[in-house]
Amino acid sequence: MRKGAWAAFTAALAWGYVYATTESIVNRMNPLALLSALYFTGAILLLPVVVSSRGVIMQGIMADPFGFASLSAGVLVAEYAIMASVSVMGGTSAALVEMSYPIWTALFLYLLKRVVPTPATFVGAAFIAIGTAVIVLSEHKS
Known about the structure:
- The protein has seven helices and no strands.
- By secondary structure, the chain is mainly α.
- The protein folds into two domains: about 1-90, no CATH class; about 100-140.
- Helix 3 (about 55-65) crosses helix 4.
- The longest helix has 25 residues, at about 65-90.
- The radius of gyration is 18 Å and the shape is globular.
């Protein structure tokens, strides 16, 4: 197995669980309230890590404050958009459309770091774009 693939697969499993459980919770809470509750709970759970690693954390933030701030904003927007899309489209459809993110990752990596996508990336992006279009168009007709 490719190095790090276990972590990516674990993330995929965890996100599958998140989408499935978000669908039932977002019916009782609006997406912004749910996001706030999740971040508040996460802050409490991670407090021991923050306290024990505060020097390393501050060093990392101060090394690139703009990068950290833009990353934080991106995470908040992405998480809110996930909650909002699940509340409207349902977990499965929202997750499938969100899976178009590798296309945007390749684009941002090119724009920000000049990482040139490989031919395999273009082929994969085409499959993802087609799959996303199928989901969006089939949802639009229903």
